[in-house]
Design a protein that fits this description.
- The chain is an alpha+beta fold.
- About 30% of the residues lie in helices and about 35% in strands.
Length: about 200
């Protein structure tokens, strides 16, 4: 049981810090597209003031996406940003292959900014979410000089619709504990004691 618990504890931080193309490192959210990186933050100025969010936003309503390039060459690249509903339930493990497997991407699109170069190196996009739920962000960058394309896919939640990976983590710990009790006979001994106590006394 100790080994299983140790694995669970080691895995939990990785689940929380590596959801698709967004990675939380030292309280900074990084958007990764191959070797390219950008700072990525979510804001809800109307309801949350100056608070910054990474992969979940607490309220339904106006949400500001801010992408700040960390590579000078990105200023010359065309970049698109799309948000789709997670109708297929890909969740935090959503990736580029999943996006490509969607037959009609437009049908799930709630926001789309097409490929545009941003010479300032900062992209700020505002979208008003009408419904709580899970969404997938898709960022694509195109280098017109060499024709290379880069992408990042990440899952995020709007409106506190769930508890992230907490239920999965708790379930894993509970399963490990139950497995330990079964392997040591603890549950069987407990069941026998309960049956003896519930059995009617003679006479």
């Amino acid at each position: 049981m100790g080994a299983v618990l140790a694995v669970a504890l080691l895995a939990a931080p990785q689940w929380g810090q590596a959801h698709g193309g967004v990675v939380a490192e030292e309280d900074v959210c990084l958007l990764r597209m191959g070797f390219l990186q950008a700072h990525f933050t979510l804001h809800q100025p109307d309801s949350r003031g100056a608070a910054e969010f990474c992969e979940e936003v607490p309220d339904v309503g106006p949400t500001l996406f801010v992408i700040e390039y960390l590579h000078e060459m990105m200023k010359e690249m065309r970049l698109s940003f799309r948000v789709i509903t997670d109708d297929q339930g890909f969740g935090i493990f959503a990736n580029w292959d999943d996006v490509q497997s969607i037959g009609d991407l437009e049908a799930q699109t709630v926001f789309h900014r097409p490929l545009v170069a941003e010479p300032t190196g900062v992209v700020a996009l505002l979208h008003e979410f009408a419904e709580a739920g899970g969404y997938i962000g898709i960022v694509e960058a195109e280098n017109s000089a060499n024709g290379k394309a880069y992408n990042a896919v990440f899952y995020f939640e709007v409106g506190n619709v769930g508890y992230g990976l907490i239920p999965l983590f708790v379930g894993l710990i509970a399963a490990a504990q139950i497995g330990f009790w079964l392997s040591t006979g603890t549950l069987q001994r407990f069941a026998r004691r309960v049956r003896r106590r519930q059995a009617p006394s003679p006479g």
